[in-house]
Amino acid sequence: MITNSHAAFNPKLIKDKLKTGGYFISQQVGALNNYSLSHFFDSDYVPAYPDNTLLKTVADFQNLGFEILLAKEAQPSMTFFDIGAIIYYVSIIPWEFPDFSVDHSLLN
């Protein structure tokens, strides 16, 4: 069994490392994660990894002969109760909020 939570992976490498009958279990964040919030701060925002979708990942694994037992996708909503929480949140994931600054981004 190989598990992965949020880290990038290569399906071919997973196939090479996994023993026959083994399982690969992963939890990922897709290309559209936080899209509306990112777009709010930057109207020209483009996801850093636009091909990182469930559909593409499933296809990549199926093309290598994997049987997909479960594949789910969610787009949960988030609620912030103060501006400090938003600023903290966007500052810890710079790949989704590139070049974020309070002075520039909050003037929008």
TrEMBL record:
Give the classification, highest ranks. Answer: Bacteria, Bacillati, Bacillota, Bacilli, Lactobacillales
Question: What name does this protein carry?
Answer: Uncharacterized protein
Q: Which organism is it from?
A: Lactiplantibacillus pentosus
Q: Which domain of life is it from?
A: Bacteria
Q: Which InterPro entries does the protein's record reference?
A: 23S_rRNA_MeTrnsfrase_RlmA (IPR052939)
